[in-house]
Write a structure and sequence with these properties.
By secondary structure, the protein is α+β, with helices and mostly antiparallel strands. The chain has a single domain, classed as Nucleoside Triphosphate Pyrophosphohydrolase (Alpha-Beta Complex), CATH 3.90.79.10. The protein has three helices and seven strands; from the N terminus they run E-E-E-E-H-E-E-E-H-H. Strands 1, 2, 3, 4, 5, 6 and 7 form a seven-stranded mixed beta sheet that branches. The longest helix is centred in the middle third of the chain and has 13 residues. The chain is globular, with a radius of gyration of 14 Å.
Length: 140
């Protein structure tokens, strides 16, 4: 990769899911980032030389407080962020343990059924990941 403005920003994240502790239905975790005032899937930039899957799991832990068990690979997203090309690798990941504590990057999370999650997501491109998760879990 070259240095400069044509460098592709490498990032990774997960569509984090669980079975509701109340009714057993699928719920998807969305994070609210006050800096951007948006709702998205947990994700972040990779550290130099970091494996994308390891980075995705690290970002989930940092942003949501949950330990995640990775599952199916989901579509990689490509878009411009601040005028620079960005590539975000995604996986389905089940929340195994943990709990959310607000932090500087993420002040709120929501566990929502798929339709509500799709509607709450700020970026339309993130909605396709909800559909990809349902397909991966054989629920579509």
């Amino acid at each position: 990769m070259t240095q400069g403005n044509d460098t592709i920003v490498q990032a990774a994240g997960c569509v984090l899911w669980r079975r509701s502790p109340v009714h057993g239905e699928l719920e998807i975790c969305l994070v609210h980032r006050p800096k951007y005032d948006d709702w998205s899937h947990p994700k972040g930039k990779l550290k130099r030389g970091e494996d994308p899957l390891a980075g995705a799991i690290r970002e989930v832990a940092e942003e949501t407080g949950y330990t995640a068990a990775p599952g199916a690979r989901l579509p990689t997203m490509h878009y411009l962020a601040n005028g620079r090309p960005k590539q975000v690798h995604y996986w389905a990941a089940e929340a195994i343990s943990g709990g959310f504590t607000p932090n500087a990057e993420v002040d709120r999370i929501l566990w929502l059924p798929p339709t509500a999650a799709r509607n709450r997501l700020t970026q339309p491109r993130d909605r396709t990941l909800v559909d990809a998760l349902l397909t991966a879990l054989h629920l579509a």
